[in-house]
Amino acid sequence: MRKADKNKDNMMTLKELKHFLRQINIEVDETYAKLLFTKCDTSNSGTLEGTEIKHFYDLLTHREEIDVIYEKHAVTGGQMSANDLLNFLLNEQREAATLEDAVRLIEKYELDDSAKHMNHMTKDGFLMYLQQEEGSIFNPAHKKVFQDMSQPLNHYFISSSHNTYLMEDQLKGPSSTEAYIK
């Protein structure tokens, strides 16, 4: 972010913010970015600083499906207890997990010490867990690459569905590699 702050004033204009997003490969619609920017500019200064930048990033990267999953499983006082997390691991992730595994994940990924002390996982801890390899649904047995991957990328056939690269409308909408990632 410091590189994106062109004039080094610790404040981000909309232009600087959009440049920063392109640098970290986040494609965002111009109108939507301006709407979020205005919403986060609580000081009405035309720039974002400190917590306003974090709030912008949080709104931009918010994933509602994670909220739904967390709320479904966090039945113990609005947080996931070790039993709630175990239920998630068994039923959603389909892992052969034990209560001890759930407690270990809480100890490893929970950021809030008071929640950790009660063997609970907050949404932030849950997000930390999901972003790690341990929380990936990818089967590690498929991790080993057995093909020759030493050639340039354009020498390989990449299997994807028709128009996967499109972000919006097929005829006039923008396209981006972000669509492949999603």
From TrEMBL:
Q: A single Pfam family, by name? A: EF-hand_like
**Which InterPro entries is this protein grouped with?**
EF-hand-dom_pair, EF_Hand_1_Ca_BS, EF_hand_dom, PI-PLC_fam, PLC-like_Pdiesterase_TIM-brl, PLC_EF-hand-like, PLipase_C_PInositol-sp_X_dom
Keywords assigned by UniProt, alphabetized: Calcium, Cytoplasm, Hydrolase, Lipid degradation, Lipid metabolism, Metal-binding, Transducer
Q: What is its main location?
A: cytoplasm
The molecular function terms of the Gene Ontology recorded here are: calcium ion binding; phosphatidylinositol-4,5-bisphosphate phospholipase C activity
Q: Does the keyword Metal-binding apply?
A: yes
Q: Where is the signal peptide, in residue numbers?
A: none
Give all residue intervals belonging to the EF-hand domain.
1-27
Q: Name one GO cellular component term.
A: cytoplasm
Where does it reside?
Cytoplasm
* Gene Ontology biological process terms, A to Z: intracellular signal transduction; lipid catabolic process
Q: Would the keyword ATP-binding turn up in this protein's UniProt record?
A: no
Q: What catalytic activity does the UniProt entry give for this protein? A: a 1,2-diacyl-sn-glycero-3-phospho-(1D-myo-inositol-4,5-bisphosphate) + H2O = 1D-myo-inositol 1,4,5-trisphosphate + a 1,2-diacyl-sn-glycerol + H(+)
- What is the protein's name according to its record? EF-hand domain-containing protein
Show the taxonomic lineage: Eukaryota, Metazoa, Chordata, Craniata, Vertebrata
